[in-house]
Structure formats: C-alpha cells, structure tokens
Design goal:
The chain is 4% helix and 43% strand. It has one helix and ten strands; from the N terminus they run ββαββββββββ. The protein has a five-stranded mixed β-sheet with strand order 2-10-9-4-5. Strands 1-3-6 form a three-stranded antiparallel β-sheet, with no helix packed on it.
Length: 166
C-alpha cells in the first residue's frame, strides 16, 4: 500500500501521496537548456462542469479511461529560452480538490508528450485533453465518482483551474 497511513507510519511512497521532500521529484529530467511553460486558453474552452455532467460520462459497465471522451482541453505554450536546441518532455498533472486529504492524491499524471528538437527561441503549443476520468476519483467503495471543487492542471510552473460544481 503506497498511500499515507498514520497507524503504520507510512508517509506515502509515490509522487501521488508522498509529503516529504524528495531527492528528485517525479518527472525531473535532464535538460540542456531552459524552457518556460505558459497555459493558454481559448474562449470556447469550457472550464466549469457540474457533477451531473461528469457522472453522465462515467458508465461503470463499459467505462475505460482511455476511451473517455474529452470534456475540455488545456493548452500550454512551451518556449525554449536557453542557449541550445533540445528535446523536452511535457508532463501534465491534475491536482484534485482537497489534495492529500481523505485519501485523495496530492496530484497525478494525466498526460505527457515529448517535443523534439525545440530550437532556441522557438515555441510550440501542446494540447492535453481532459476527460471525465481526469475529473473524478475512486471512492472508498471502489466506485469512480466526480469530486466537486476546483481541480488544477499543473504543467511545470503553469496552472489552469477547472471547476466541478455540485
């Protein structure tokens, strides 16, 4: 069990639950240049959902996170502002409401992509689809349920909030 457990003293051993200071954070890599990350939004991208919207997309009998249709998307502009051309792996994490409480993870990876040979001064935009799976958690009975509150997409130092209302 990798979740935190006060009874056994387990602090949580994965990036999803660990609250200590790691030697290397999950996803830390070796870049030979510097990149900046900036979320960009489109006026027609929906960022507020109801739990009913999310629940209707989770069918327990045929549900698969890989088949879940996107409900919105988050775009991030990645710019190489360092001295040389380099690849970069862009990791997208989701932070649920009440992260780290009541068994909720601190964050979890929901998307990633590799950009190849990003030249000095060049920017590329990456789009990460967000599905009903990404805006829900498994409850104590093993059922996937939408969780109301503000979810936050983290991509390096860029953030994009998504709200799920009752």
């Amino acid at each position: 069990n990798m979740r935190p457990n006060a009874t056994s003293g387990n602090p949580g051993r994965t990036y999803r639950f660990y609250t200590g200071t790691p030697v290397y954070s999950f996803g830390d890599g070796l870049w030979y240049t510097n990149f900046t990350f900036q979320t960009t939004s489109s006026p027609n991208q929906k960022t507020v959902f109801s739990t009913r919207d999310i629940s209707s997309l989770i069918n327990e009998d045929i549900y698969s996170p890989w088949k879940a249709p996107p409900v919105t998307a988050v775009s991030v502009k990645v710019t190489n502002n360092g001295p040389r051309t380099s690849d970069v792996v862009v990791l997208a994490f989701m932070v649920p409401p009440d992260a780290g409480k009541n068994g909720n993870p601190l964050k979890y990876l929901f998307g990633f992509t590799r950009l190849h040979a990003v030249a000095v001064g060049q920017s590329e935009t990456v789009v990460f689809p967000v599905t009903s799976h990404d805006l829900s958690l498994v409850d104590e009975n093993g059922k996937r349920r939408p969780v109301p509150g503000t979810w936050t997409v983290l991509i390096e130092d860029a953030e994009q909030p998504i709200k799920v209302m009752e």
